[in-house]
Amino acid sequence: MISASSIELSESAYFNNLDLVEKWAGKKSTIFLVVKGNAYGHGIYQIVPMAMKYGISKFAVFNYSEAIEVENASDGKAEIMVMGYIAENDYCEAIQKEISFFVFNHIQLNQVLIAAETIKKLAKIHLEFNTGMNRSGFEPSLAKQLFELVKANPQYIQLTGICSHLAGAESIANYVRIKNQVKVFRSIEKLSKTMNVLPQYFHLACSAAMVRFPSIRYDLVRVGIIQYGLWPSMEVLLEYLNKKKTSADPLKRIISWKTKIMDIQQIKSGQYIGYGNSFLANKNIKSAVLPIGYSHGYSRVLSNSGNVIVNNMKVKVIGTINMNATTIDVTDVPQINIGDNVYLIGGEGDLQISISSFAEMSDQLNYELLTRLPKDLPRTIIA
Fold first, then answer.
1. Cα dist from 144 to 193, 195, 380, whole Å
2. Exposed/middle/buried for 97, CB within 10 Å: 0-12, 13-18, 19+?
3. pLDDT of 95-117, one tens digit each?
4. Which residue of 48, 140, 286, 379 is 20 to 30 Å from 263, comparing CA positions?
5. Higher pLDDT, 365 or 180
């Protein structure tokens, strides 16, 4: 069965980005590639094997179901860290599989202790502290109590990590807040060393922090958006380019999204296109219908404003985007035919629809746009 649209992933572009990640992480920091949200929409079952082919086999996810997907995609050869939700009845299995995971409240910690005692195996935990993001994590004032609990339960707990999450390392607007978070985290680090409660990893850095703040890379970096060829923000990119005194973006987008023309219509001047009256033809035009819409992740916000590429020409979306269909103006495209390829992201040669421009047009973050791409879209790895 042929899908209405499909995604291509460039292995060479991905390897280029991982080369940069290894350079930025440095020799002392272990790299965990973040593949939550179906690898930011790229596909866990595609990204994990590519990363392992490159030589990186450590992955971070948000929940336990994603951890199982990584396990399956890696044939059980990956090291997996869960940064978010695990249901109580999954702890025994997670511990048995030696999957490490964040622990961020006492209820969860008690559940983990019971599970570890039940199966008589060490739980590999990362104690997460709330250093100022105020989303999840133990209060820093509880650090001494928690470290004492770890010391008292060596038969049940292996302290794999002590960690926290930065509240916006991609923006200078958050600098003071980040600085205060780092200060708090360093006090926790100091206490753990004083009490001789030493984890395998201290970790704090995301993609933005890895690039911007080398001093807080610690033992482990959690690399998300950058591996996919996208910057956490324009600010981080411009800061990097200015520092390197170059205008060349070293990252490469690895994803292309394309569909095909489903139908072609001749529209007379004065006629409306699609539902309602959002687009009125002010001259005779030729339109083409694409078999994708907002149910496929192509945002309705792009109605009458989006661009696509067909036959190496950029053309406009016209009319209101439907659940399963989008109309484009192909009046000026020569030799247009049903079945011709249309690029929603990517393109041919120098003419491209970038993810950043696509996100700006649809008023979405890069992260949001990518993770909304349906999991059932076919994804193919190309050279």
1. 11, 8, 49
2. middle
3. 999 999 999 999 999 999 999 99
4. 379
5. 180
pTM of this structure: 0.95
Mean pLDDT, residues 7-14 taken together: 98
Q: How confident is the model at residue 283 (pLDDT cuts 50, 70, 90)?
A: very high
DSSP symbols for 265-327: EEE-TT-B-SSTTS-B-SS-EEEEEES--GGGT--GGGTTT-EEEETTEEEEB-S---SS-EE
β partners of residue 353:
346
Kindly state the tokens that stand for 64. 């336990």
Q: For the chain, how big is the Rg over CA atoms in Å?
A: 24
User: Would you state the pLDDT for residue 20?
Assistant: 98
Single-letter amino acid code for the residue at 210: M
List the structure tokens of 111: 């559940």
| Euclidean distance between the first and the last CA atom of the chain, given in angstroms as a whole number | 24
DSSP one-letter string for 157-191: EEEEEEE---S-TT-GGGHHHHHHHHHHHHHHHHH
In total, the chain counts a number of residues equal to 383
Bridge-based pairing of strands 285-290 and 100-103 is unpaired
Q: Which two tokens stand for residue 47?
A: 């990204």
Torsion of CA 294, 299, 300, 305, to 10 degrees: -140
128 phi and psi, to 5 degrees? Answer: -95, 130
Which domains are delineated in the chain? 11-244 (3.20.20.10), 255-353 (2.40.37.10)
CA distance 165 to 206: 8
Q: What is the pLDDT of residues 47-72, one digit of tens each?
A: 999 999 999 999 999 999 999 999 99
3-state secondary structure of 137: coil
pLDDT reading at 382 higher than 70? yes
The answer to whether 40 and 370 have CB atoms below 8 angstroms apart is: yes
Mean confidence (pLDDT) of the chain? 95
